[in-house]
Amino acid sequence: xxxxxxxxxxxxxxxxxxxxxxxxxxxxxxxxxxxxxxxxxxxxxxxxxxxxxxxxxxxxxxxxxxxxxxxxxxxxxxxxxxxxxxxxxxxxxxxxxxxxxxxxxxxxxxxxxxxxxxxxxxxxxxxxxxxxxxxxxxxxxxxxxxxxxxxxxxxxxxxxxxxxxxxxxxxxxxxxxxxxxxxxxxxxxxxxxxxxxxxxxxxxxxxxxxxxxxxxxxxxxxxxxxxxxxxxxxxxxxxxxxxxxxxxxxxxxxxxxxxxxxxxxxxxxxxxxxxxxxxxxxxxxxxxxxx
Length: 291
Hints:
Blueprint: E1 3-6, H1 9-15, E2 22-24, H2 29-36, E3 44-48, E4 52-58, E5 68-71, E6 79-85, H3 89-99, H4 104-112, E7 122-126, E8 138-142, H5 155-176, E9 186-190, H6 197-207, E10 210-213, H7 219-232, H8 241-244, H9 246-250, E11 253-256, H10 262-288
Parallel strand pairs: 3-9, 9-10
Antiparallel strand pairs: 1-2, 3-4, 4-6, 5-6, 7-8, 10-11
């Protein structure tokens, strides 16, 4: 964050701004959300909406062919990585309709009816050509032996495979960008699905981290407001941004904690998921090339 000047004469005369009003360098909506969620190093921002978005605070990024690395909007010595997923809530709604009679309550019951790790079954679901990995489309199912499956035995397996697969993909891709989970990692969740406690529990278990929500809506707008307040108070020379937003960070509400067996369950599954995703990418490439 930096001051680029003060309010112009036109803005003073037209809208009555104070001549001493400072103008700060702006940023985009996603970087602003990092500020608005009061994130700190080691945290993950997760937006679960029509499309899903993951943004993480990085010190040593590892840029990939998919995903973005940008300057961190609140720490000039850090970066943020952004991963966007086209198949978010609409894909979850498709399986809700086909497996749970269109009911989120039944959908959540199906998730809870299946043990963590889904007895080794893994699913990847892409209604539309995905962004990360690029171009994947279709439904892919694998049994505990990593063999392709046409269908799973029951709706509860299908539903858990969807949610676990979506979250394992996000963890895998974030780690490939240079993110490292720590015991202090917080996952700050926003978006429509952030009210679904069954989904949030899967998020917590897959990442082996606590999940929080913020009370304030529109994190991007709040991030702009926090950055403006920070500049108005003199910026980093007067107060660290992290100290300014500390009260906001402390107000985050804990909504899910990882189960005791989360690391033991999802550690091996993450290794398998990485291998299977690479397999699906190769299958898709051969199909496109007519091989």
